[in-house]
Amino acid sequence: MKFTKESLKLYGVTSRQWLNNKPLAQAVEEAIKGGVTFIQLREKNTEYEKLKELALSVKAVTDKYSIPFVINDNVELCIDINADGVHLGADDMSVKKAREILGNDKIIGGTARTLERGIKAYEEGADYLGIGAVFDTSTKAGTTHMSKETALKIHSLVPIPTVAIGGISSQNILSLKGYGISGIAVVSSIFAQEDITSSCIELSSLVNKIL
Q1: Which residue in 48, 72, 78, 112 could disulfide with 42, CB within 3.0 to 4.6 Å?
Q2: Would the pTM count as exceeding 0.85?
Q3: Taking residues 137-163, what's their average pLDDT?
């Protein structure tokens, strides 16, 4: 698995709540077949052994397709299953501490809702930033919109790739043109869809128009 900014083009963030008993690994494979280029395991309120089981099942798929696979928030699980890295929110372990633990060979993503947070994450060793929320989102309560101006400031002053996240769908992707992003991160517009592969094909085609 080789990580580049192109890996971030269509970044899928998992959520089993919409899958109606479909195995998560199957849903992830359907997404990858549709053009997803990066996977983050984000299954909140899941006890560790179940989370590990899910992670291993997903990793088998991402390994098969040489897709980068990171764990949300959980450095311990990343080490335990030898995932490709972690994504850390503003309230999680610091990027600096995670880098000290994981070393330089793992991918570390940071969340930046402001320019200051983006600079800090970069200086502490982040490989990419998730920026947003760019639109209203039901996935995370209490988020505020990030303006295009802020996104461009981060892009110009922080020398690592950025991924837009928050309420992104096929209906609003094109309005992100000119944000300086390397990709979009999507939850429900992938995993809440009846035909995941077709949905990802559409998203991938639209993303190509804004990058």
Answers
A1: 72
A2: yes
A3: 85
